[in-house]
User: Fold Histidinol-phosphate aminotransferase from Terrabacter terrigena.
Amino acid sequence: GAAPSAAHEVQRLLRPDLRGRTPYGAPQLDVPVRLNTNENSYPVPQVVVDAVLRALSGDMATLNRYPDREFTELRKALTAYLEKQSGVAVTPEQVWAGNGSNEVLSHVVQAFGGHGRVALGFTPSYSMHPIISETLGTTWVDGLRSAATGPDAFDLTPESAARQAREHDPSIVFLCSPNNPTGTALPFEVIGAVLDAAPNALVVVDEAYAEFARPGTRSALTLLADHPRLVVTRTMSKAFAFAGGRLGYLVAAPELVDALRLVRLPYHLSSPTQTIARVALEHADVMLGTVEVIKHQRDRIVERLAELGARPVASDSNFVLFGGLRDEKAAWQALLDEGVLVRDMGIAGHLRVTAGDPHETTAFLEAMTRLAPTHV
Ligand code: PMP
Assistant:
């Protein structure tokens, strides 16, 4: 008979729990205004480009050697940055890094999740939390935000989070603050409530967007000293304007960080990655120079969308989720036809837009102004 098709053979041999799954897939389309993946629209400043190139040229001749497996200098640079940014003192032994915070999250799940264990998150939240958990064999439980008290009620109360944590006795709880895709920071009390309610869980607070939070937002970093089961993840992909550099990190108890060495692949951070990130961190003030402009564009989006009747959710991030759309798929396509790419998160009546530079933001708001009469 005929040889079986490759597609058939792959499906036959694939892990049964991976069959039929679709990969993470934000479209990478060539569109004038790309506001769909919460990147920072501003290029890396020239002084940093120059400094990175100088440092890299010193590295090239030693690429015959494996990199520093413990990324010692990079850890020190991250420690200094965290202390400056958050006011919380941490030590290099409390810091762990990977190729994006996605990799750091996968290390956490590899070490603390796995078959027979439950990870709990509160939907809608960052879509990679369930993907990482499930592809590593961990059972995912989709917790709920709020008691669906209204169409735009995406809040999570300490009581609701604690009740759900008690119910499922998870090994890992994912919190996201500010939350993607809704944009709002969690009430700070949720973190302590979940730590109390889930005594067998590692509690991960994903703070990818922390640098954009509105004044008065308190970081989970401030709780680390008293909570050995707490993990705070961050990334250089957003405020730091460094998504292509692929550098994410976490902060936790030194013993917890130590355990992650059981699962990481040796030399997971290449020498160029370590150098590029370290030099960029040494220029943190310049790298973060666009944060205030972006926050201003975000506030502009919230204000204007509200005027147009498209209900924006309060944002502590560099993006805005907005509702009130008659048909989010039609609105997404209509925006794309206007040259503006935003994100359909699969939430009925809602789309998510990243705050770009002033020109991109204006292009989006002008397109929305034209489209509002038919789509809002
Ligand atoms: N956490 C959240 C909440 C995010 O939105 C993202 C990026 N979309 C990440 C983590 C991962 O980013 P990276 O791997 O680039 O650090």
Notes: The first helix runs from residue 6 to 13.
